[in-house]
Amino acid sequence: MRIRRAIVVGAAMVIVVAACGGNGSGDTTTTGGDGAPQTTDTTGDDGGTQSVSGDLSIVHTWTGSEQEAFEAVLAGFEEANAEVNLSRIEIPFGELNAQLTQQFAAGSAPDVTVALPGLIRLFAAQGFLMPLDGLWDGWMADGSYTEPLREIASADGTPYGVWFKGNVNGLIWYSPDRMDDLGIEPPATWEEFIAALDAVEAEGGEPFAVGGADLWPLTQWWDPILARVAGADVFNGLVDGSVSWDDPAVVESFEVFGDFIANYFPADALDRGFVEATCARVDGAAEFQNQGAFVNLVARGECDDSLVPGEDFTFFLMPKFDEAAAEVQFVSGDLFAVNADTANPDAALALVEYLGSAEAQTIWAERGGFVAPNSQVSTDVYPDVNDQRAAELWPADPSVAAVYDLDDFIGGEIQTVLREALQQFVRDQDVDAIVQSMVEVDERVRG
Amino acid sequence: MERRDRAHVMSGRALERPDRESRLAYAFVFPLLLAFVFFYLWPAFNTLAGSLFRWGLLNPWSIAQPADWDFVGLQNYVDTLTSARFWNAAINTGIWLVIFPILVTVVSLVLSIRIWQTPRAGATFRTVFILPMTISLAAAGVIWTFMYDPDFGVLTRFVEWAGIDFAIDWGPIRFQTSQWLSDPGIIDLGFSQIRLVNLSLIVAGFWAFTGFGVITFTAGLTAVSSELVEAAQVDGATTRQVIRNVLIPQLKGPMTVVATISVIFALRTFDVVWVITQGGPAQDSEVLAVLLWKQAFVFLDSPQAGLATAVAIIMSAVLIVGAWPYLRGLTREKT
Amino acid sequence: MRQSRLTLTLLYGGLTVFSLLWLVPVMTAFMTSIRPLDEIRGGWWNFDNATFTFDNYVRAWDQGLASFVANSFIITLGSVALTVATGALATYAFVHLSFRFKRLWFFLLITTMIVPIQLILIPLLPWFRTLGLDQGAWQFVGIVLVHTGFGAGWAVFMLSSFFRAVPKEMLEAGQIDGASHWDQFRRLVLPLALPGIVSFAIIDFIFVWNDLLLALTLLQREFQPIQVGLANLQSPHLAQQDLVSAGAILAILPPLVLFSALNRYYVRGLFAGGTKG
User: Fold this and answer.
1) Do B28 and C93 count as a contact with CB atoms less than 8 A apart?
2) Which of C53, C78, C97 is the last residue of a domain?
3) Chain-chain contact of C11 with B138 (C-beta, under 8 angstroms)
4) CB of C132 within 8 Å of any CB in chain A?
5) Do the domain assignments include residue A432?
6) Residues C168 and C231 in one domain
7) How far apart are CA A93 and CA A89, in angstroms?
8) Sheet order of strands, A171-174 included
9) Nearest-Cα residue of chain B relative to residue A99
10) Contact A186/A321 with Cβ under 8 angstroms?
11) Which of B13, B207, C191, C270 is least buried, going by the fewest C-beta atoms within 10 A?
């Protein structure tokens, strides 16, 4: 009798307490106690003002050597704000969308989270994110960031994201020694580029290592080709929906990519992941890898730590497809956003202000494998020539058109379909099919 | 028990008895039913109701907020049933539904019989085959990813070592003994294509699940009376004849059970696929459960949770309708 | 069963080979977990200059596997305890008592054995939010309740075979002596059906321990069990097979240990589920 009653009462209590438990704010930390937040200056002036306190949680996607670097950055913030209890939550990159959706839907999202522009736009539309006009006004005023960069971090004209880690793409990595052996010079024009690839094939080598199994390397392949063949306007037009997927320039970019695949891609492009492909190139199984600047860190961290940047491995920028066309730089990177319902807005704002500052970005920049988006970071801080050259490519000049990683910018189903379609495209190079798929999903999603 | 109840009902005075017993019984079942109603029936109802609306997880449908409702009736079902992606997933699931039960039933049957023929080490052998059942499907998926790895996977190296590294391109069939997880082959049926990468995944699931068949068939075999077997042998039957004419007919019951549970497993499969390929490459191995997940949690640019719930209802309806006789029989038998 | 020597040899031989093949996947994971990653790149079956180490386990443990394992235990033990307690109570009523709508409830309960978990998955998120089960450690309570709700059918189904095995005469004798149903349940049925209950508990333990989808959907990072941790370690950003395999072996251990220690009960439980109907 007693046991049964206890069970029933217990169950009832659980339900009652849970039902009263309420409507969930953004508090996800397990240590209790909010400190009394002090007012922080949110007009974007850098560091050194009053410190904040309280609990704060931040979500990021870095592991391994990148995680260590990020920890060093966070340590800088914690030193300046000793009373903040900052908990970090690492979520695998592929799970980010799903996890953040669950958390925001459950009302228990972190205070600050890494987010790509596509996600920022989706979540901002739902009112989940805090507008960051104050921070951005300050940054624009002192020239830390350019207008194109602000655009990328915004949804509907209002900025919700803060740039932290930049990356330039369309870099073709190679080993200078092996290039010398093959008698090839780093190409400066498209024709030279093709000639170099043909030379590799003539020697019986494998031109490219492609990490197609991980999906995103394929988008990083096609995006620079699209940017170079079709130009920045068409590129951005695909993002906002003003350009259709069957636009002739877009179709041409697919055709160019298709030729590339047919002639120069390995047969097992879809079998290996990004890290394995990087190591395959390092080991000599392939000559080139089209990837971003972070290869500088990964090649050493995960493949062979005896590599000397610049000597053993370096890159050349994918040449312009059409010499007469304007300069377009394809970038990607990680931004951070603030939960609109955060329980500790002052600390959250202080954290993202810190992350967007030159000070924070310098910490990681010094470790390599990082391009600082804040133009106040001097190029001297980079530890090796690879990183320096990459940083120089960062569009700090407002006149250089910058386009952001297309699928990350669009997000949602279109992103997924594009990635899957690219995998299929690698297999069959069927331009009509991929255009058709993209037109369909675009219509379905955007109407 | 039943006879007594009826007797009570017939004598008017005893009408109180069933009521009192009913109330007492409810006291016993109440805790379980509480969890059951709140965390199964109510969400299931919500899924059904939610499938009639257009909504996304960023802005979930709630029965308590009629102002936010976007009623679309059966449109979600229509959209789903006319969606190429849905049918692709359905076909992949279909491959599972056909191949997986056959593989599991046949192999576990053969294994059980062979083990039955070797009584001495029987327990050891059985343990080996049952072992993978204790492993989670996520872990099994991880393990098989190693097996299929193109660089250092056991399967890849074995193929090289044994020299069975080949590719066929014969009519509608294309097949190669490599790239197990990206493109081992296709069978082109004209109206659609069967992607053989599904087979790679089915093998992993089969490895994890066959133990269930072994247990069931072994139980069935121990129920076969030894006299029957001896009598057949005395009559001069060979082992093969004994198996064919005595054992197998007696195993019809277990065969049904194994096949049925395998079919249910195949339809629900998510873990193995998710851990190994996430439904890729492209949509080659995307089964219904994976599609549903993506619609609810990944495709956030348009509200697709309504579609996802429609898929869930379709899956459940198919299963319940298919298993209806089984369920009815079970209810009658056990209550 | 008389069989020729040749047949027997072939059989034993064949079964042994097949068994060894069957174990290869687990061996692969185990070997990968106890050797450094660069050695594995050459294939784990190369034993020249092999170094064995538990370093991968240590690193995986430090990288958060420890909390995953702890979460797994909390969720699994909680679910099993609740399911067994409520399930045993309910099954007694289903087997020995009659009550209104009994058939209907039973039918609804066994649909859980057939329908996919996706049927309840999606609304659970907003539902948890409404109930406040998405906050902190309440998530454990929430997922335990879902496992119980979804496992209710299996519980009643399996336990009823064991409860039914208690001879009716003993029950009737007890009733004549004036024992209440509660007494009978506690003193008579429970002890006699205990082996069956243990069997079910083991099966439920393994089932909940191995769950991926519910945990993936409902739980935040800090509360996730090891299966989700494992699926996440596989993420396509790093090739860390050494850590993943260590994680896989850790994920396998508790069910494996349970299984070997209580083999008899596990098999009996599955028999009960499998051979009826």
Assistant:
1) yes
2) C53
3) no
4) yes
5) yes
6) yes
7) 12
8) A289-291, A171-174, A314-317
9) B297
10) no
11) B13
